[in-house]
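Need a sequence for this fold. Nothing fancy.
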């Protein structure tokens, strides 16, 4: 009997894993098919279809529509009955559908097309080039404004190595297909888990680029901030990692235009590192808030945020990690302690330490 039981248990495990793999493959197959189909459809028909889907979404998806209206009301300082509020909310739904259509077809676009369709209207590419040349790593921070997937693909086409932090807000089946579409051209997409944080820190230590969106506290365990005149919480990840690794932060924002996409590149900033971690993070968030507000205001009709940034009631923090937020001090220090330091000749920054230690002073310890 013992001999008969063993094969049954193995078969059950195999079938469970097989179903999981089949689900992923099916998600990718559907994404690939839709990508080819809509790429072959004329742009005018494709965009018209997307706008109709966005309009339908606005009418039938009451929860998401109400969330969008709530966010827009706070930014504009107007009531729900105001015509501008509803028109802006409807435009956000339409732009979200256009963004998804862009994502489906981006995998078929050339790098040349992506770069030609990205127009820098504020700032300069030299800001990004100089930050990368410093060798300390670059953190691009943005909001859910415009077609941020398009700009991400454009940055990849420029040769930047990106590690992009993304949170799952849909079912795993849809998330797998969307992530596959985003990663076809390259880029390392990670979730905000301990392994994801580890990947971000390693990329920055290699002098590469990490990407964060910072306009909502998805896990409800961020730091208090006054955002558009009202108290809420915002994620501490950008400022915490920049503080502890010495990486340079460059805020960027995009906006969809009739032909192509605008890109605004803000001046680089660094997060001061003192003995007071909380004060450093708070100061960093306070510096980012007005930049986020300006970026969102510049294209409010394209702020595709479908969750409430200012909840009516404070929800419980999402307990997905043993120590709370994936970007809390203890976890970062634990992650960093298992990572190799920078190569010889480069400045090394140990997470949790109070000062940078030059490679010369550490030579006797290696």
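Here you go.
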């Amino acid at each position: 009997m013992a001999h008969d039981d063993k094969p049954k248990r193995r078969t059950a495990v195999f079938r469970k894993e097989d179903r999981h793999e089949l689900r992923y493959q099916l998600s990718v197959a559907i994404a690939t098919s839709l990508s080819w189909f809509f790429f072959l459809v004329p742009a005018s028909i494709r965009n018209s279809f997307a706008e109709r889907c966005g309009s339908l979404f606005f009418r039938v998806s009451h929860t998401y529509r109400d969330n969008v209206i709530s966010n827009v009301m706070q930014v504009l300082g107007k009531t729900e009955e105001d015509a501008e509020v509803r028109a802006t909310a409807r435009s956000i739904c339409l732009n979200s559908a256009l963004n998804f259509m862009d994502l489906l077809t981006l995998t078929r676009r050339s790098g040349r097309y992506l770069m030609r369709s990205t127009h820098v209207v504020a700032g300069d590419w030299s800001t990004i080039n100089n930050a990368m040349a410093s060798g300390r790593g670059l953190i691009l921070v943005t909001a859910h404004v415009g077609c941020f997937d398009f700009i991400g693909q454009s940055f990849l086409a420029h040769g930047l190595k990106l590690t992009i932090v993304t949170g799952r807000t849909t079912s795993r089946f849809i998330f797998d297909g969307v992530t596959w579409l985003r990663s076809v051209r390259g880029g390392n997409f990670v979730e905000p888990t301990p392994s994801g944080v580890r990947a971000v820190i390693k990329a920055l230590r290699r002098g590469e680029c990490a990407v964060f969106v910072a306009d909502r506290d998805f896990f409800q365990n961020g730091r208090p901030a006054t955002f558009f005149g009202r108290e809420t919480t915002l994620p501490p990840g950008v400022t915490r990692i920049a503080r502890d690794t010495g990486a340079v932060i460059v805020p960027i924002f995009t906006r969809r235009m009739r032909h192509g996409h605008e890109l605004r590149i803000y001046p680089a900033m660094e997060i001061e590192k003192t003995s007071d971690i909380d004060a450093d993070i708070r100061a960093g968030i306070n510096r980012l808030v007005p930049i986020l507000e300006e970026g969102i205001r510049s294209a409010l009709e394209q702020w595709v945020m479908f969750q409430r940034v200012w909840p009516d009631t404070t929800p419980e923090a999402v307990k997905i990690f043993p120590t709370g937020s994936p970007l809390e001090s203890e976890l970062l220090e634990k992650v960093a302690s298992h990572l190799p330091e920078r190569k010889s000749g480069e400045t090394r920054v140990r997470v949790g330490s109070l000062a940078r230690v030059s490679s010369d002073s550490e030579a006797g310890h290696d």
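For context: The domain at 39-342 is CATH 3.40.1130 (Glycerol-3-phosphate (1)-acyltransferase).
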